[in-house]
Fold this sequence. Notes:
Layout: E1 2-6, H1 10-20, E2 24-28, E3 40-45, E4 48-53, E5 59-60, H2 65-74, E6 78-81, E7 85-89, E8 94-97, H3 100-103, H4 113-128, H5 143-149, H6 154-169, H7 173-177, H8 181-190, E9 202-205, H9 210-218, E10 224-225, E11 230-236, E12 239-244, E13 249-252, E14 254-257, H10 261-267, H11 273-279, E15 283-292, E16 308-311, E17 323-327, H12 328-331, E18 341-344, E19 355-365, H13 368-376, E20 386-388, H14 398-411, H15 442-446
Parallel strand pairs: 1-2, 1-14, 2-10, 7-16, 14-20
Antiparallel strand pairs: 3-4, 5-9, 6-9, 7-8, 11-12, 12-13, 15-18, 15-19, 16-17, 17-18
Helix pairs in contact: 1-14, 4-6, 10-11
Amino acid sequence: MRIAVIGSGIAGLGAAWLLAKEHEVTLYERDVRLGGHSNTIDIQYGDRSFPIDTGFIVYNSANYPNLIRLFNHIGVSTDGTNMSFSVSALGGDLEYEGSLLGAVAQPINLLKPWYLGMWRDTIRFYKTAPASLENPDDANLTLGTYLDRQGYGDAFRMHHILPMAAAIWSCPIDTMLAFPLRSFVRFFINHGLFSLTSRPQWRTVTGGSRVYVKKLADRLGNRVRLDEPICSVRRLEGGVLVKEKCGKHTLYDQVIIGAHGDQTIAMLEDPSDQELKLLSAFRYQKNIAVLHRDPHLMPRRRHVWASWNYLSNGDQNQKERVSLTYWMNKLQNIDRRYPVFVTMNPLTEPDPALTFATFNYEHPIFDSRALDAQELLPAIQGTNRTWYCGSYCGYGFHEDGLKSAIAVARGLGAEIPWLCNVTPANELSSCRTGHINDAPNILSIMGG
């Protein structure tokens, strides 16, 4: 078959790679590079050069089964890394890191009832929240409503669980408050987030994520179209007509769209009512990522620095985008004499003289409407020769994007070259209730 794949993130690129062995696959990408959130940048630091990942950075042995098997199959080298999580709140007046020593980084906090109460609430939440799955009264609650009903304090909410959740999903606090409780709890259970002892091994791609992107793209040869946004997709009785920006029309047997829901709707010339309803349910949060070397966007106290560092200026505006600094030296094993950071939505701009580059990313928002739409996606998969994939099919992470690619490829009859139990995309959705094994295990992060 002749297959068009639109979008080259892990979902589109993964689907193209899986199908290209048996079919003639053409991959379209509107950007000048492949990879989506797999975006590696070379920075010059004096006489040294370092490849820095600015989107997808790490994965672990427990929660990325298909990504691990893909990397093993194509020969991607990886390095072990270390994960930890810190909170710098109230403009730096409150700072802690998740290890035992990090929790007492400010010893005076041990004399403050609200700080001790935050940790008591933390223990209570980890112990009791799983039971909400069995309580019919909690069936339709949001996370915010549950926290209110159970009487959790502001310190636990604003300085622990909500920063943690906002960091995972790259969304504002108010978005996380609206997250459906049962999906939140089920997600935490599936990923061991209620376990204080889970310590998966974290890894990063040697040389940056662009290494795996190139290996996947090599199979496609000259059938990669960069800087080629698609103007329209018209479904016909005998095929799918794809119109490029230059005005060229190409007829394919099948089309796979690995783009965001709103982008997909804009491409389809004749979306059905069901396609419009389902694809419009997926909304996205715009985020800015700044690659820099300005330490002022890290916690004030050097001994609190962690791999992930949540930052808050103290006004607690719940609608503001989450601000988070990734310490790339720790994440990618870079010589610490050359400090490098990636800050998402900086509270204050880094020194321009210390800034390397700025990027715009979008992350899916998972509210009840989106989660309901996930369960119905199989109804439109393959209809009118059109397939859909992306991290929005799961919980928004790298494994989810790849898993959706595998599901589409299996729906088109592809053999997956490793042991895989992913259901074909047009048969049954497992997005909400299955084990979407990708999100970072934040409790293991906080353990250092």
